[in-house]
C-alpha cells in the first residue's frame, strides 16, 4: 500500500471526495510517483475551483475548459513542447495532459459513485453497468507525440566528464540506469538480492515497475566491476541485506537513497555539464535508442525495456532512424547503380 503525504495536498486532504479518490489510488498500489502526480494535479484543480468559486462536484465542461485555459496561461520551463490555447502557453504538453488526466479520472470516480451523471472532461466516460470506454469527443488539449530527447555527442562528452567527478555509488547508479535502461523507481528500489554477479543478471521485481511486469536483464562487465567495488564500500554503511544504494551523507547516513535525492544528483550533473535537458530518464532513452541503432528487433527492445505496448517501443526505432537509414542506403545504392549503368552505356 502506498502512503499519501497529505501535508503536500492540503486542499485534497480537506475535501472528502477528492481525498477518498486519492486514497483509493494509493490503496490500489499505484506507483509512488503516480500517486504524487495525481495528488498534485487534483490539488491544483481544487485551488483553481476555490479561486473561481466552483463546486467541483457539479462543475461543467465550461468550468473544466476554464481550468485548461488557466493551466495554459502558466509559465513553464519548456517552450518547445507546448499547446497554444493562447499564444502565451509555456507549460509542456505532457504536463497539461497529466493534470487533465487526473481530473478526468476523478470525475470517472464521481460518476461511478453516483455523485453525478457525466464526466465534464469528456474523455473516458463511465457508463453505469458497463466498462469504462473512451468517448469520441475531441480532447480538450491536443496531444503531441514527441520523440524522447537524447544528448548529442558533444553533450555526452560533457556529461561523461561531469560523471567522472562523482563518487563511486553515483557512477554505478548512472551505469546501471543506462546499461539496463532502468526507470528511476526501478533502480532506487534495487535490493542486494536482485543482482546475480555470477551471471551478470539483474532482476527487476514486478512491484517496483511502472506496469507491474517483472523482468530479468543482463548488465555489462564494466558495470559489474563498479558493482563489486561499491559493495566493498557499502559494507561500511551496512552489512545487512536490503536496498542496494545507501546514503553516505552525515544527515541520513546508511539510509536508502530516495528518488528525490537521486533527482537532485541528476540536476547537479546537468548543471555541471551544462546539459539542461539531462534528466533521470535520459539514460534509459539513450540505451533503448542505442539498441535500436544496433539492430535489435522491436520485440527484443520491448522485453528489455519492460514495455507492454510496442507503440511505446517504436519511438526509439523512429529516434534511431534505423529503418529510414536502411531504406535510404538501399535506395541510394540502386540509384547509384542506375546512374553508373547510364554512364557506361555507349552511344549507338
Category from helices, strands and their pairing: mainly alpha
Report the CATH topology name of the largest domain. hpI Integrase, Chain A
Total DSSP helices: 14
**What is the top-level CATH class of the largest domain?**
Mainly Alpha
Fraction of helical residues: 40-55%
Q: For the CA atoms, what is the radius of gyration?
A: 25 Å
Task: Characterize the main sheet.
Answer: 3 strands, antiparallel
Given the C-alpha coordinates, what overall shape results? globular
Content of β-strand: under 5%
Number of strands: 3
Stretches where pLDDT falls below 50 for ≥5 residues?
78-89, 124-137
Summed over residues and divided by their number, the pLDDT gives a mean of 82
Summed up, the domain count is 2
Largest sheet: spatial strand order: 1-2-3
CATH superfamily name of the largest domain?
A: Intergrase catalytic core
Distance between the termini: 84 Å
What order do the SSEs take from the amino end to the carboxyl end, as H and E?
HHHHHHHHEEEHHHHHH
Describe the model.
- Helix content is 53%, strand content 3%.
- By secondary structure, it is mostly helical.
- It folds into two domains: 107 residues, no CATH class; 167 residues, hpI Integrase, Chain A (Orthogonal Bundle).
- It has a three-stranded antiparallel beta sheet, with no helix packed on it.
- Strand 1 and strand 2 form a beta hairpin.
- The termini are far apart.
- The relative contact order is 0.07.
Amino acid at each position: 500500500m502506498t502512503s499519501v503525504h497529505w501535508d503536500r495536498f492540503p486542499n485534497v486532504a480537506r475535501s472528502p471526495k477528492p481525498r477518498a479518490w486519492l486514497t483509493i489510488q494509493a490503496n490500489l498500489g499505484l506507483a509512488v510517483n503516480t500517486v504524487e502526480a495525481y495528488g498534485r494535479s487534483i490539488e491544483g484543480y481544487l485551488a483553481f475551483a476555490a479561486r473561481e468559486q466552483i463546486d467541483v462536484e457539479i462543475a461543467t465542461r465550461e468550468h473544466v475548459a476554464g481550468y485548461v485555459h488557466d493551466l495554459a496561461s502558466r509559465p513553464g520551463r519548456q517552450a518547445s513542447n507546448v499547446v497554444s490555447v493562447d499564444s502565451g502557453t509555456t507549460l509542456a504538453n505532457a504536463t497539461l495532459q497529466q493534470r487533465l488526466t487526473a481530473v478526468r479520472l476523478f470525475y470517472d470516480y464521481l460518476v461511478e459513485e453516483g455523485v453525478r451523471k457525466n464526466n465534464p472532461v469528456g474523455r473516458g466516460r463511465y457508463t453505469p453497468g458497463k466498462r469504462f470506454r473512451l468517448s469520441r469527443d475531441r480532447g480538450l488539449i491536443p496531444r503531441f507525440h514527441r520523440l524522447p530527447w537524447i544528448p548529442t555527442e558533444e553533450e555526452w562528452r560533457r556529461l561523461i566528464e561531469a560523471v567522472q567527478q562523482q563518487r563511486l555509488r553515483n557512477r554505478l547508479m548512472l551505469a546501471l540506469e543506462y546499461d539496463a535502461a532502468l526507470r528511476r523507481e526501478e533502480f532506487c528500489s534495487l535490493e542486494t538480492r536482485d543482482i546475480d554477479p555470477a551471471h551478470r543478471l539483474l532482476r527487476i521485481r514486478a512491484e517496483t515497475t511502472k506496469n507491474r511486469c517483472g523482468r530479468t536483464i543482463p548488465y555489462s562487465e564494466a558495470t559489474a566491476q563498479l558493482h563489486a567495488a561499491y559493495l566493498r564500500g557499502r559494507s561500511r554503511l551496512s552489512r545487512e541485506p536490503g536496498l542496494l544504494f545507501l546514503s553516505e551523507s552525515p544527515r541520513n547516513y546508511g539510509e536508502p537513497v530516495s528518488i528525490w535525492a537521486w533527482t537532485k544528483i541528476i540536476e547537479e550533473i546537468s548543471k555541471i555539464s551544462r546539459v539542461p535537458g539531462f534528466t533521470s530518464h535520459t539514460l534509459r532513452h539513450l540505451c533503448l535508442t542505442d539498441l535500436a541503432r544496433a539492430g535489435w528487433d522491436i520485440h527484443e527492445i520491448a522485453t528489455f525495456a519492460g514495455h507492454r505496448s510496442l507503440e511505446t517501443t517504436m519511438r526509439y526505432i523512429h529516434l534511431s532512424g534505423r529503418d529510414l537509414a536502411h531504406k535510404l542506403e538501399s535506395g541510394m545504392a540502386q540509384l547509384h547503380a542506375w546512374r553508373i549503368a547510364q554512364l557506361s552505356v555507349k552511344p549507338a
